[in-house]
Amino acid sequence: MVALALTACAGGDDEAGSGGDATSSGGGDGGEALHIGTILPVTGSLAQLGPPEIAGVDLAVKEINDAGGLFGSDVQVTHTDSSDAQNASVATASAQELISAGVSAIIGAASSSVTKNIVDDITGAGIVQVSPANTATDLSGYSDFYFRTAPPDTVQGDVLGNLIVGDGASNVGILVFNDSYGTSLRDVVEGVVGEAGGTVVYGTSGQEFDPAETNFATIVADAIAAGPDAIAILAFTDQTPAIVRELAAQGWDMSKTYFVDGNLQNFGTEGDTGFPAGTLENAQGTLPGAYPSEEFQGRMLEVDPGLKDYSYGPESYDATMLVALAALKGGASDGETIQANMAAVSGADGGTECTGWEECSKLLADGEDIAYQSASGVGPFNEANDPSSAFIGIYQFGPENTYTFSRSEEGEVPQG
After folding, report:
1. Is the pLDDT reported for residue 151 higher than 70?
2. Cα gap 168→173, rounded to integer Å
3. Identical fold, 4-151+293-385 and 154-288+391-412
4. pLDDT value, residue 415
């Protein structure tokens, strides 16, 4: 594990309204410098999500520091690796490193299972944890110090289930790994399919596969033998290429295959993850979050020119921005102050709508309440610290096994 501490350079003098002076936001200008940590996937089965998530954090920090920073100092960020649930010691070590470093907030983890391994240590230390990608339903309302800017599986599962039945399927197969992310999402999809009069013919409780599985011949054969007219793959990217190859080898119509955020990627036609041209043509996938604008994509590329996609980049940007705005509103950078103001700056109690650091920080400095307008399209935090609403993007694969945006569906996040 390698940790890298970054401090973006401040851009010019600290002018009035730049966000560097909290004298009118309830706490004076005596706040200490804000130190944020990240526990995001640099290695492991979700490593494809690491670059856009890290870029989203860095973009927010750069925006804040270019405008003069917070409390007269640059915001500092220390990046660490989360890896995955099969390498749990990596995230555990990262969490302990950041706790020892005295961070006030941690962005991550991406995996629900990884989060469950570290959330008690983080929140128990009075540190705000904000995940940009956790979706397991049992994390809703887990702790007063735990927030997320991605919706729980109830939203993506509802959209995915309705997408499948809307395409005419009534007998659905689900290839799902035995991970809290997979089973949580499966349960929602199964409920939606059942309510629509359909049946999950494979992949119900007890038919999950081991996350460490590498040979999918029998699993795929059993799924196809159940007679599905659609198959959803609920897994991560280290299992998915092998599953796709096995499905294609056994004659499955790949246009009737559905992916989710944990494995949606531009597979292409070359390398270890590539398939022959046309393999995934017309297959579909879902991904939480509004599709980022070209302007936002361009800003992320300035931070990391090597980005191949933007999955959960906006959510990571939002998480970082909300943490900093909460500190500014409370006038201090400690975890308790940030926690107490997260819902308020998200717009849970109303306020003037604003976007970005300069606009929102100026309103706070003028003593106004704000309703931060997220880059990812999520609504204000609800009582469970989940976003109250969210968009789910629907994507379709083309002949080169890469996906393009099709449309978005907006859903409300249920509570309780």
Report:
1. yes
2. 14
3. yes
4. 72
Pick the CATH number of 4-151+293-385 from 3.40.980.10, 3.90.550.10, 3.40.50.720, 3.40.50.2300: 3.40.50.2300
Residue recorded with tokens 């962005």: 107
Torsion angle of the four alpha carbons 147, 150, 151, 157, in this order, in degrees rounded to the nearest 10? -140
- Give strand pairing partners of 392: 288, 409
Q: 209: which residues sit within 8 A by CB, 6+ positions away?
A: 175, 176, 177, 178, 216, 219, 239
Segment 59-76 mean pLDDT: 97
Assign domain 154-288+391-412 to its CATH superfamily.
Answer: Response regulator (3.40.50.2300)
Q: Which residue has the tokens 């004659």?
A: 251
- In the DSSP assignment, the letter for residue 393 is E
Tens of pLDDT, residue by residue over 295-320, are: 999 999 999 999 988 999 999 999 99
Q: Beta-strand (E) ranges in 109-265?
A: 128-131, 146-148, 171-176, 199-202, 230-234, 257-259
CA–CA dist 228, 202 (Å, integer): 8
The whole-model pTM stands at 0.84
Per-residue pLDDT reduced to its tens digit, 204-257: 999 999 999 999 999 999 999 999 999 999 999 889 999 999 999 999 999 999
